[in-house]
Specification:
heterodimer; A: mainly beta; 11-stranded mixed beta sheet; 11 strands; 42% strand; B: 304 residues; alpha+beta; 4-stranded antiparallel beta sheet
Chain lengths: 146, 304
């Protein structure tokens, strides 16, 4: 009986040893924004990758992804809250990973270079934080960081 | 009940039921400033305000005739009450933060007996919250090559800009530039029709990172010549020096010659002044000024 039990417990491990190493578990990601109005050279670098990949309309951005526009390129970031961020040419920005209080839609970006233009249609119910190397800009509702 | 007690009670009832009428009153024997303020303004804490209203430096003695503010104070108090109520009901956010700041200023003005200004500030706080209810927020953030951040609010409720532990509210029509490592300054009002499409100046000399050897001159070492390429449509330029000497210089030409500067490392920043009076984007470089010649004084000696 004990032998049977030990074989039963050991079996899955023995099978794993026999096969190729499994891929690392995919990180838990939540969609932060969708790209629309993509014009010119616009690329995205995933938080989990090292390559800059060309972006198209409908590309979804997740926490810690980066977006780059070249000269003549531009795009719009649409957040689920309704907040729209227009990314100008020659801009490098990141999608920040923050958590809002429940029921408070929130969007966060970090602009490292270039310019963005943001619109909140319902600032009483939305919030946007734009971080830069020099300052943090907060618009809309007060933000609660956890 | 004795007649004296009845009279005192009648006086108390009269004082309690009738608010202090505008005009004058006389300080009673033994009456403290807090008591006088409570009697005339309805608040023990309003003593300093009463002194300010009467331009008095100290507590008035018994028998002194003092002026009591009239309807203008009532208007300011009512406006402050409305603003306080609106803030209490407003959701947390930039508009509320700004309204709270205005309310604090209104209360400070009230304490200095500046009633019209206090009412205006309080009304402003109330209006800020009422306007913010449905107004959309539209603003732009630009990071310049030298790391400066420029925040321009086009419309809607103010945004908050935080740096180095300090927060500034930027309202619609205002622009705030934050230098890296420094707290935010004061937002500037945008000129009507201003544009931000101007290019930053292209700096020519001194070369980037140069160690410039100069001779002694009045004020340090010099002369130091700063030059850059002209910016289209610029009506002038502003050169800012940051280092052992901080200085801001205006010039109509893309060239500034400083007679002398103390030795050391400097960052020099140039921005164009546009036809509408606004500033274009800036360009910054570093330069180090060092003595270029060591002056030797040789004393005569008997040695041949």
């Amino acid at each position: 009986m004990a032998l049977c039990l030990s074989l039963f417990v050991c079996a899955p491990a023995c099978r794993r040893d026999a096969q190729a190493p499994p891929a690392p578990p995919a990180p838990k990601q939540s969609a932060r924004a969708t790209l629309v109005q993509v014009k010119g050279a616009v690329s995205v670098k995933r938080a989990t990758g090292d390559e800059w990949l060309g972006a198209v309309n409908g590309t979804v951005l997740y926490d810690d992804d980066k977006l780059r526009t070249e000269r003549g390129g531009s795009a719009e970031l649409h957040f689920p809250s309704g907040t729209v961020v227009v990314v100008s040419e020659d801009t490098l920005l990141g999608i920040a990973e923050t958590r809002a209080a429940p029921g408070r839609p929130q969007a966060d970006v970090t602009v490292l270079r270039g310019a963005v233009d943001a619109t909140l249609d319902r600032p009483a119910n939305q919030s946007l934080t734009v971080g830069t190397p020099a300052a943090t800009v907060r618009a809309g509702r007060e933000i609660v960081f956890q | 009940m004795s007649p004296a007690l009845s009279a005192a009670l009648a006086l108390l009832v009269a004082v309690a039921t009738n608010p202090p009428a505008p005009g004058e009153t006389v300080v009673r024997p033994g009456e403290s400033l807090a008591q006088l303020a409570a009697r005339t303004l309805g608040s023990e804490g309003a003593g300093p305000e009463l002194l300010a209203f009467n331009h008095l430096d100290g507590v008035p003695s018994a028998g002194t005739q003092v002026q009591v503010p009239g309807p203008e104070r009532a208007r300011a108090v009512a406006a402050i009450g409305s603003a306080r109520s609106a803030i209490g009901q407003a959701p947390a956010g930039s508009a509320r933060t700004e309204a709270e700041a205005r309310l604090a200023e209104a209360e400070s003005l009230l304490a200095r007996a500046r009633y019209a200004e206090a009412a205006a500030q309080a009304d402003g706080a109330w209006k800020l919250l009422s306007d913010a209810r449905e107004e959309r927020s539209h603003f732009a953030v630009a990071v310049e090559p030298d790391g400066r951040t420029r925040v321009a609010v086009r419309e809607g409720v103010p945004v908050r800009v935080e740096a180095q532990g300090r927060t500034r509210a930027v309202r619609a029509g205002e622009t705030l530039t934050v230098v890296r490592g420094e707290p935010p300054g004061t937002p500037q009002l945008d000129a009507p029709g201003s544009t931000t499409t101007a290019e930053p100046p292209i700096l020519i000399s001194p070369e980037p990172g140069l160690k410039l050897a100069l001779e002694p001159a009045p004020g340090g070492l010099g002369p130091v010549r700063f030059a850059w390429k002209p910016v289209p449509d610029a009506v002038g330029y502003v050169l800012e020096l940051a280092g052992p000497r901080k200085q801001s210089l205006r010039s109509a030409q893309p060239l500034v010659t400083v007679p002398g500067l103390p030795a050391g490392k400097y960052r020099w920043t140039v921005r164009a002044v546009l036809p509408d009076g606004s500033f274009g984007p800036s360009a910054t470089r570093a330069v180090q000024l060092v003595p270029g010649r060591i002056k030797l004084e040789v004393k005569e000696t008997p040695w041949q």
